[in-house]
UniProtKB/TrEMBL annotation:
Listed name of the protein: Pentatricopeptide repeat-containing protein At1g02420
InterPro entries (UniProt xref): PPR_rpt (IPR002885), TPR-like_helical_dom_sf (IPR011990)
Protein family: Belongs to the PPR family. P subfamily.
Species name: Cicer arietinum
PPR repeat residue numbers: 236-270, 271-305, 306-340, 341-375
Highest taxon above the source species: Eukaryota
Keywords (A to Z) from UniProt: Repeat
Any Pfam family the entry gives: PPR
Amino acid sequence: MFLRHYTSESPFRSILPSNLILRRLFSFNPNDDVNKVFNILSNSSSPEHLQQTLKSSGIFLSNELIDQVLKRVRFGHANPSQTLEFFNYTGRRKGFYHTAFSLDTMLYILGRSRMFNHVWDLLTEARRKDRTVITPRTVMVVLARVAKVCSVKQTVESFRKFKKIVPDFGTDCFNSLLRTLCQEKSMTDARNVYHSLKHSFHPNLQTFNILLSGWKTPEDAESFFKEMKEMGVEPDVVTYNSLVDVYCKGREIDKAYKVFDEMRERDLSPDVITYTCIIGGLGLIGQPDKARDVLKEMKEFGIYPDVPAYNAAIRNFCIAKRLGDAYDLVDEMTNKGLSPNATTYNLFFRIYYWSNDLPSSWSLYKRMMVEGCLPNTQSCMFLIRLLKKHEKAEMALQLWGDMVEKGFGSYTLVSDVLFDLLCDMGKLLEAEKCFLEMVEKGQKPSNVSFRRIKVLMELANRHEAIQNLTQKMGVFGQTLQVRENVMTPVVEMRELDSQENI
């Protein structure tokens, strides 16, 4: 049904004047205004042009609208420098305060582009104007971007700087650091930082749940579970789920079921996450049919499978190369009103990629677009690599066009493969067009791709085009310098240098 046909097998801080209230009530179209502002932001040639166009547009720049525009920028990969101008311009209005959501989104956009000097300048200004918008979530947003390009030591140094900024620099912020290290570095790094800083904070239940969530060996998880109990911190369902997960990943299903029993003895009912871990563990030991039975068992306890639970069961059948059973579970899921997500599709994309099945992959991709489920980066990489292998340049350009139009996937990762394909097939004009589209989105093509296109242009005597592309690449020079600065990282906070460190 769903897949079989497509496969080879089958609130405001200030009071608004009354006229603005009327305007909001009778003429505000959220989606239309967000699109207009986003287009103004994307197409402005200078800060002055941006401000003038916004003023003449007559659009009321409310907190709600700004939140949505910044969200659109984040997922649409628009120009980060222009977005910062927009953020600063709207924030300079008398009596206006950005929301915490706007601040965190802007910081994410800047951090993704390695514009760390601007990140700390923005935090300094937020601290001066309204410290309440700086939260533990802000700490995690910033540290996550720093950790991607810096060492653990440098990430911790950046964390220390937040003591001068965050109103309540305590356990919640400490937990943000640990979560970042678990996600961006390693559990060993998180453990070492925990032990070095735990005496400066007060570890709580969330601290241990974070530390228990990513261990790959039962021994490590059991050690933290023991320390948790010794400190008098009572485990909850999340804690026990982490233990079940690590036992299942370690193929120790018997121990996982013992945790089930302990939970019930403590009047803690297993939830859908507990069962999902069990489903995944049964698949790892080669029992996909028993895992499917767990889906039925859940319902008997009043717990209904969600999309991740079904995905775990589908993954088991994909691993076992029983795609017919996997399709049946997708049909069952959709019949229950659950929509497959990008992870569901990726389970099949992986199978098709390794079996070199381009027709099924492309049909699945088209189905995703019809269903409105945008592919993630993994989906795009499976597709673009398969298209390169089959030398399908037109289809690859269609994928790229969808990415540019709808803002999904990683331009950087996909473009490297795309440029290789286009250059191999001598499609220089198409490569140049995609290069310029990427730059217009504020995304830097890799130096390898730039050099390859440049060589072909030299052979074609297209010297003006080479000069144009070189100038476009030069725009990213400042960003590269910022990245070098943060690698030290001496992140300048001139107003705060005289204050105390941890």
